[in-house]
């Protein structure tokens, strides 16, 4: 495993992708602030020298000579007043520079969250449907809401970490400058300190990865519970999923405790460790080596600052490792997402004549376990066609191929004799209206759910566009809407919870008709509805006949009596085709048996 310290440049490059080289300005300002403070501390040497009747031997060597040169350059007297002014200016300069550095860091952190969340969401919205099927919504929700925020915390710790490294180097350099032997001692202790904490760092990093993974599992389970809340509540089955939720919570709690203990150890040992090291080095320099006390005193101040920064570095390093697992997970997923971005560019094609499936095969896995085999279907413009078969026969997969969210392994799909793989998919999909059994209703007004934009509201009159009303009437939902106190401005609740199944389905159809599509796909749209709701939807279909192309996917046959043509699919293959009347009249046909089973 790579030493986490050596991975710091890799992490910096990741953040640089989103922030540019501005983040290095923070380090430059930090160097200046460290030098400014170091200068203020060094000024204590000439201050000691000015003490009258001082019995303290002062020999700062190179440092004393350099400071003397500084006084000459600034044309200042080597007086107490000048020295005090320079000390104050040194520390004020440090404060100002650190303020700029930390302000820039906070700004960069905000920019990072904005850029990464925006880019990540764009990648999610443009990923292929197949990649979506291979993952779960809890994973993506966790990444955007939790892991990106945690990776921003890693960024904060990384910046502070490097600030501490820079400060340590500056202070140790100045300590060497004042007293070479003392500086070497400080470097040796710094090396020993980092070595002692290596195992602790690896442990915290492992805990970080476990936290990120467990948060993903927890998000997934919570989303599943909310999606099935009514069922779980009504059947008292909530407890079976609660067990998994509480297991994840307990695991996260234990990890948090362990990380807290690691931080407590680092924080509690810092001050005693620094003092012990200072006493040992000072004892050696003054008592054993008989070196001058004044330079040792200055070196102690610098050494204290260096060691404090170094142990602060360890604390921030642990903080970095606690959250770095989130950065690694986000970065890896971002890479996978970008490898699975759907290419929608191509020739603009408008459906006018026909849609043809020619010898089409499709499998979800890589082992060619085909769920659709040798599919040959011809949908003429303005016709009403049905695809009939039992559940699991492959009907919905056919629809996914038609919209090209899934791509066949073999065969061709032609739109007006143009291969679908070469056309502009977004333009093609704007021509498709798709109504499935699983209604997509949003927690917003009826007007929004039909138009998909509140900009259509006249805020003064609160009028409803004629096109919206027309679509609602075509879907046989307008009369119901007008019985509501707020009419089209009624909020329907999350997933349309305030509406019945039939009302949601008709609202869904109204939205699709409002788009004025060229082809309407009804995928098991009436399979879970009562007879009255089914009748309304059938009336809607009848009104559209001959005006747009309608494809009905069904295993219940009550809505397909009046279609122009139908295909019967079983186990992924087209086994029969013809008109309703023709297939029904053949008593040996599979379709005729389906009718008998449903007692039509």
- The computed structural class is alpha/beta
Spatial strand arrangement across the major sheet: 6-7-8-3-9-10
Task: Characterize the overall form.
Answer: elongated
Biggest sheet overview:
6 strands, mixed
CATH class categorisation of the largest domain: Mainly Alpha
Task: State the separation between the terminal residues, measured CA to CA.
Answer: 68 Å
CATH topology of the largest domain: ABC transporter transmembrane region fold
Low-confidence stretches: 50-64, 455-461
How many H/I helices? 21
Got a strand count? 10
The name of the CATH architecture of the largest domain is: Up-down Bundle
Question: Could you say how many structural domains there are in total?
Answer: 3
The name of the CATH superfamily of the largest domain reads: ABC transporter type 1, transmembrane domain
Assess the beta-strand content as a share of residues.
5-15%
Radius of gyration: 36 Å
Give the overall average pLDDT: 76
* Helix percent band: 55-70%
Task: Give descriptors for this structure.
600 residues, alpha/beta, ABC transporter transmembrane region fold, Rossmann fold, 3 domains, six-stranded mixed β-sheet, four-stranded antiparallel β-sheet, 21 helices, elongated
Walk me through what this model shows.
The chain is an alpha/beta fold and 600 residues long. The chain is built from 21 helices and ten strands. The chain has a six-stranded mixed beta sheet with strand order 6-7-8-3-9-10, sandwiched between helices. It folds into three domains: 4-339, ABC transporter transmembrane region fold (Up-down Bundle), CATH 1.20.1560.10; 354-431 and 549-589, Rossmann fold (3-Layer(aba) Sandwich); 432-516, 3-Layer(aba) Sandwich (Rossmann fold). The model is unreliable at 50-64 and 455-461 (pLDDT under 50). The chain is elongated.
């Amino acid at each position: 495993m790579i030493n986490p310290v050596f991975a710091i440049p890799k992490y910096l490059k990741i953040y640089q992708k989103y922030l540019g080289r501005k983040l290095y300005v923070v380090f430059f300002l930090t160097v200046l602030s460290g030098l400014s403070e170091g200068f203020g501390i060094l000024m204590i040497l000439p201050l000691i020298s000015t003490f009258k009747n001082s019995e303290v031997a002062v020999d700062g060597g190179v440092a004393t000579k350099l400071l003397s040169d500084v006084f000459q350059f600034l044309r200042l007297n080597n007086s107490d007043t000048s020295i005090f002014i320079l000390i104050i200016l040194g520390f004020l300069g440090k404060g100002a520079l650190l303020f700029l550095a930390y302000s820039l860091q906070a700004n960069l952190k905000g920019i990072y969250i904005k850029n990464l969340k925006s880019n990540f969401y764009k990648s999610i919205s443009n990923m292929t449907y197949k990649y979506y099927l291979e993952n779960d919504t809890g994973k993506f929700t966790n990444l955007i809401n939790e892991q990106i925020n945690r990776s921003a915390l890693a960024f904060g710790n990384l910046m502070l970490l490097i600030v501490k490294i820079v400060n340590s180097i500056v202070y140790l350099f100045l300590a060497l400058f004042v007293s070479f032997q003392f500086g070497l001692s400080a470097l040796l202790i710094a090396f020993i300190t980092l070595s002692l904490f290596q195992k602790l760092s690896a442990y915290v990093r492992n805990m970080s990865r476990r936290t990120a993974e467990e948060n993903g599992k927890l998000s997934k389970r919570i989303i599943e519970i909310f999606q099935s809340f009514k069922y779980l509540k009504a059947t008292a089955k909530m407890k079976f999923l609660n067990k998994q939720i509480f297991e994840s919570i307990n695991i996260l709690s234990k990890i948090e405790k362990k990380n807290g203990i690691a931080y407590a150890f680092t924080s509690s040992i810092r001050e005693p460790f620094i003092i012990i090291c200072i006493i040992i080095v000072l004892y050696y320099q003054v008592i054993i080596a008989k070196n001058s006390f004044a330079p040792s005193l200055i070196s102690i101040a610098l050494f204290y600052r260096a060691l404090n920064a170094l142990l602060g570095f360890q604390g921030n390093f642990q903080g970095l490792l606690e959250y770095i697992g989130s950065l690694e997970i986000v970065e890896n997923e971002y890479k996978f997402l970008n490898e699975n971005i759907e290419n929608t560019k191509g020739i603009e094609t408008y459906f006018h004549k026909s849609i043809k499936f020619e010898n089409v095969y499709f499998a979800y896995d890589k082992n060619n376990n085909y769920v659709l085999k040798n599919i040959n279907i011809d949908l003429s413009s303005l016709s009403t066609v049905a695809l009939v078969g039992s559940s699991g026969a492959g009907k919905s997969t056919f629809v996914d191929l038609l919209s090209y969210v899934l791509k066949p392994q073999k065969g061709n799909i032609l739109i007006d004799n143009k291969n679908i793989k070469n056309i502009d998919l977004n333009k093609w999909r704007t021509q498709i209206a798709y109504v499935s059994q699983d209604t997509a209703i949003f927690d917003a007004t009826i007007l929004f759910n039909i138009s998909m934009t509140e900009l259509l509201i006249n805020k003064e009159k609160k009028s409803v566009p004629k096109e919206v009303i027309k679509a609602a009437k075509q879907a046989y939902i307008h009369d119901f809407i007008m019985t509501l106190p707020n009419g089209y401005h009624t909020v329907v609740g999350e997933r349309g919870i305030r509406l019945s199944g039939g009302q949601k389905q008709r609202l869904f159809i109204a939205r699709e008709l409002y788009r004025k599509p060229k082809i309407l796909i009804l995928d098991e749209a009436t399979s879970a509805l009562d007879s009255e709701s089914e009748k309304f939807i059938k009336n809607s279909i009848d009104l559209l006949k001959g005006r747009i192309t309608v494809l009905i996917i069904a295993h219940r046959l009550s809505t397909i009596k009046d279609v122009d043509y139908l295909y019967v699919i079983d186990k992924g293959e087209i086994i029969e085709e013809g008109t309703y009347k023709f297939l029904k009249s053949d008593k040996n046909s599979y379709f005729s048996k389906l009718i008998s089973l449903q007692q039509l």
